[in-house]
Amino acid sequence: MKKYLGFSVGLFVVLAMTFIANTQTAKAEISASVEARIKAKADFKITRQALEAEIKTKREESKKKIEDLRAQIKTERDVMKAKMKEERIVGRERALHRFDGAVERMSNLTNKVEANITKLSGKGVDVTIAENLVATAELKLTGAKDKIAEANALLSASSDELTAENKTALRTLAKDIQALIKETHQALREAIKSLKDAVKIKMEAEMKVEAETL
C-alpha cells in the first residue's frame, strides 16, 4: 500500500510539474504574442504617421500653387478669361472640399471606435478583431488622403481647362477616392459589430460562470 501510495504521489508530482511547465510555456507564448501585436501596432502607427506627413506636405504645396494661380489671375487683362479661370479654381476647390469632408467624417468615426475599443478593453472585452479592422480602416483612409493629394496636385497645376488626359486621370482618382472611403466606412462598421459581439460573448460567459456557482 505504501509502495502504491508513493507511486501515486510521485505520479502526481510529475503531472503537477508538467502542468506548471505547460502553463508557464503557454503564458510565455501569450506574452510573446501580445508583445508582437504591440510592436506591429507601433510600427504601423509610425509608418502611417510618415505617410500622413508626406501627404500634408503635398497638400500644402498644392495650396501654395492655388494661391499663386489666383495671384496670376489678377494680372489677367482679359476680364472674361480671368472670370473663367477663377470659376475653374472655385469649382475645383469645391470638389476637393467634398472629399475632405468625407475623410473628416471617417476620421471622426475612427476616433469614436478607438475610444470604445479602449473603454471595452479596460473591462476585459476581447477587442482584437476590432483593432485589426480599425487598422484596415486607417490604412484605407490614408490611401484616400493620398489620392486626394494627387488630385490636388493635378488641379493646382494650372488654371487652364484640363486636358483630356488629365480629365481621365481625375475621374480615375475620384473613383479610387470614393471606393477607399466606402471601404473605410465598411471596415469601421464591421469593427463596431465585432465590439458588440465581443461584449455579448463576455456577458454570456460571465452569466454561465454565475450559473455554475449557484
From TrEMBL:
<feature type="coiled-coil region">
    <location>
        <begin position="41"/>
        <end position="86"/>
    </location>
</feature>
<feature type="signal peptide">
    <location>
        <begin position="1"/>
        <end position="28"/>
    </location>
</feature>
<keyword id="KW-0175">Coiled coil</keyword>
<protein>
    <recommendedName>
        <fullName>DUF5667 domain-containing protein</fullName>
    </recommendedName>
</protein>
<keyword id="KW-0732">Signal</keyword>
